[in-house]
Amino acid sequence: xxxxxxxxxxxxxxxxEAQEAFDKGEIPVGAVIxxxxxxxxxxxxLTERLNDVTAxxxxxxxxxxxxxxxxxxxxxxxLYVTLEPCxxxxxxxxxxxxxRIVYAARDEQRGCINLNTKLHPKTKIEGGILAEEAxxxxxxFFVEKRNLN
Length: 149
Ligand SMILES: [Zn+2]
Fold this sequence. Notes:
By secondary structure, the protein is an alpha/beta fold.
């Protein structure tokens, strides 16, 4: 069966990135940026490896997508991310003027929604796509981490 290019398809790609982060011992968050059904950026959290609190998946994906497009604005692009963006990433996404943000799992504590981080008026945000898979990976990460200590 041919898989359609829909939100679930692209969120699966973001989850693959999250799995890569997991395998490196990073908090498993992955992101892809898509324009016209084409993935132009893939990234996963690398805050430990890069020793950089700004190395969230979304931040790297924004930079990679802008490089690919040769322009700083991500109009007509959709970001798929496995966890609701934090305030820093939502702020960066504001500046990018991205058209759409789709996240999987909610982050009640540090996510941009409960913290009322302002998004660009042109940006639509929605969530819940493959949320269970994304939170299961996150839970597994923290359980394993606890068992190692
Ligand atoms: Zn973030």
